[in-house]
Design brief:
Order of helices and strands: EHEHEHHEHEHEHEEHEHHHEHHHH
Bound molecules: zinc ion
Largest sheet: 8 strands, parallel
CATH architecture of the largest domain: Alpha-Beta Barrel
Radius of gyration: 22 Å
């Protein structure tokens, strides 16, 4: 019998430095720095993704984050061109396809909007969707990328930073509006470069917690004729209700997928040994249901592989996507063998227990609903960045978990321990983590295997316990 496998197994960068093995403290998010560190991390990460069974990497920030220059072309120095060519070479020689993360009418246009009233509407980060000049500019960006770089496809992102609400634009509802911009951008690429893989991501399409109604779903069905993959990411819940999903997928002319149900949004500034949070059982349950409903594509968030829980998450989920009938615990065991070189079956099963129990420790205790009244300094900072459902705010469940404040204050603070854990929950999480320590200590005595990596697990768990202790001592969070 053939394996139940997802065809497009996409790893989502997100940004260039998000899988970097060292934090970046002195650059605003999202950093698009290219240096020796990230080049070396690229090589390791692409090799790893291939080994874990991914087919594509979807990446933002190769050329810019928020600011195409007025003439577009001067974004590239000779040095940057060589660096980006080198990174693309690393990706493609690892037998992965590169999906270029392309902001559609947003992400990249801040400077141009500031300087050019012909494309300016009401949003300082999004072009006006009713001006012919906006589409001309979008096409100029695509021509520039297509002429200069051998990308294999495009991730189209129109909604993440909101939209223009000028008199003309506002006549269109949100979903229709974003679909139109994505559709015309996709059609332009398809016409010029027919072979490119085209993916649309829904981040920001609706307020978090809302679901698409039938008219909105019909508009997506129409978009589906022009693209290959529709990713209903699920940053704080999917926009297609799970009960409607199988029927919707059946009607959709392209593939449907999500970002795997749960993930840690890769932190730019946070110490890489400061968390230990496997989510393999949780995500495989989501992915198995997704496959059952007809999904054959998905894009899973990457992170720094130097963190052992991130490494195991990405490894296991990549393997799982190749056959959703597998038992996730068996895949963890495979991971222990491949990543830790542990041969002894009894020791391997101790490792599996460790990852399994660490996952339970968090999910037994977290509150999926965001806790309120957290002082801003200790919160994740996303409340003001996104629109939240006015009617059903509590339906907005991660999806994406932020470890520290995304765009953030200095120093980094473990906001996931405040936004999703109150005093009692934190203490219980701490106790369950402490219960893991004897098991880790016994693994440290194992002969052979990758001792250094086991020490890193130990350090990550200890650091998390310390963070909880630190939060416990902050009076304003424990009243
Ligand atoms: Zn407008």
């Amino acid at each position: 019998m053939s394996k139940k496998s997802f065809q497009n197994r996409i790893a989502f960068g997100v940004w260039l430095n998000d899988f970097r093995s060292t934090p970046i403290l002195d650059d605003t998010w999202p950093s698009v720095l290219i240096d020796q560190q990230i080049i070396s991390d690229f090589q390791k990460t692409m090799d790893f993704l291939k080994k874990a069974g991914y087919t594509d990497i979807d990446l933002f920030g190769l050329l810019t984050n928020r600011d195409w220059p007025l003439d577009i072309e001067s974004v590239l120095t000779i040095e940057r061109k060589n660096q980006v060519d080198h990174l693309i070479h690393i990706i493609q020689s690892s037998d992965l396809q590169l999906i270029y993360g392309l902001g559609v009418y947003s992400w990249g246009f801040d400077t141009i909007i500031q300087n050019n009233p012909e494309v300016r509407g009401t949003n300082s980060s999004a072009l006006c969707g009713s001006q012919g000049k906006s589409q001309e500019l979008m096409e100029k960006v695509i021509d520039f990328i297509g002429r200069n770089f051998a990308v294999d496809g495009y991730h189209l992102e129109a909604a993440d930073q909101g939209r223009c609400r000028c008199e003309k634009c506002i006549q269109e509802g949100d979903v229709d509006y974003y679909n139109r911009l994505n559709r015309q951008t996709a059609a332009y690429i398809r016409n010029r470069w027919p072979g490119k893989k085209l993916l649309v991501n829904t981040s920001g399409y609706l307020p978090w917690g809302d679901w698409m109604n039938e008219a909105e779903r019909r508009s997506v069905l129409d978009l589906g004729k022009n693209i290959d993959i529709f990713i209903d990411g699920g940053n704080h819940g999917q926009f297609i209700h799970e009960n409607d999903r199988a029927v919707f997928i059946d009607r959709l002319p392209c593939d449907y997928g999500t970002s795997g149900g749960f993930w840690i949004y890769p932190p730019q500034r946070f110490d890489r040994n400061r968390w230990f949070l496997p989510y393999i059982l949780r995500s495989t349950t989501h992915l198995r249901n997704l496959y059952r409903d007809g999904s054959r594509s998905c894009e899973l968030y990457l992170g720094p592989l130097i963190n052992p829980s991130t490494e195991m998450n990405i490894f296991c989920l990549g393997r799982f996507l190749q056959d959703v009938d597998q038992n996730p615990l068996d895949i963890i065991e495979e991971g222990v063998e491949e990543l830790y070189h542990i041969k002894d079956p009894a020791q391997r099963s101790n490792f599996v227990e460790l990852f399994h129990n660490a996952e339970s420790a968090f999910f037994n205790n977290w509150s999926p609903h965001r806790l309120t009244n957290i002082p801003e300094f200790y919160s994740d900072g996303i409340d003001s960045l996104f629109q939240w459902s006015k009617l059903h705010r509590d339906r907005a469940i991660p999806g994406e978990l932020f470890l520290d404040s995304l765009t953030g204050q200095y120093p980094p603070f473990p906001v996931y321990l405040t936004v999703h854990l109150d005093k009692e929950r934190r203490e219980s999480y701490q106790r369950e983590l402490m219960d893991l320590l004897p098991l880790v200590k016994s693994l440290l005595k194992v002969n052979g295997g990758n001792h250094h990596k086991i020490e890193t697990i130990h350090l990550c768990i200890q650091n998390t316990i310390q963070d909880i202790e630190m939060v416990k001592n902050l009076q304003e969070l424990n009243q």
